[in-house]
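note to self — DONT lose this again. spent like an hour looking for the file last time. sequence + predicted structure for the chain T wanted, 200 res
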Amino acid sequence: MSIQYPDKRVKRTKETFRQVLLSLLEEKSFHEITITEIVRAADFNRGTFYAHYETKEDLLDEIIEEMFEEMTDAYRKPYLDLSVVDFNKIQPNSIVLFDHFLENKNFYKLMLRPTTNYNFHEKLLKRLDKIFRNEFEFLVTDVDPDIDIKLFSTYRIHGIIGLILEWIENDFEQSSSYMAEQLIHILKFHTPKIYIKRKN
């Protein structure tokens, strides 16, 4: 039992730093925030901060990476045990990626605000692009020999990413279930199936 306490204490300390940083980001840009402000608001000393992070960028990057891991898990959920996804058969409620964004909407809205000033839009776009590109291979119907399939995949992938980003930027105007339904309808058009490349 005694071995578990340091782990719990570390988790609590890190969670405090995370919540403090996100709270400060509500008030000012990331580049205006100092480590002194973070430790003062967290009621810790600088030594405690440096025991876990070298810089404030390390702290924010850890927050982002943890959220991206949750996003990736939500993205993968519909096809964990599949080698092919048939959009004519898949149920909208199995697509929980939009639920992830909605459940964490305050985080995404905060990070995408221009005043946050941490290039999060590009980080999110790159991560989504990497997931789609590494794990999906579109099966195209009615193939036009003049169309470069790799470029078509890029077009498809960035269309989906644009759909997600616009939904967030429009303050989640539609429900997550509606977005999942629309995504299926869109993907069924000329790409009714995708092959799953990742199996690890």
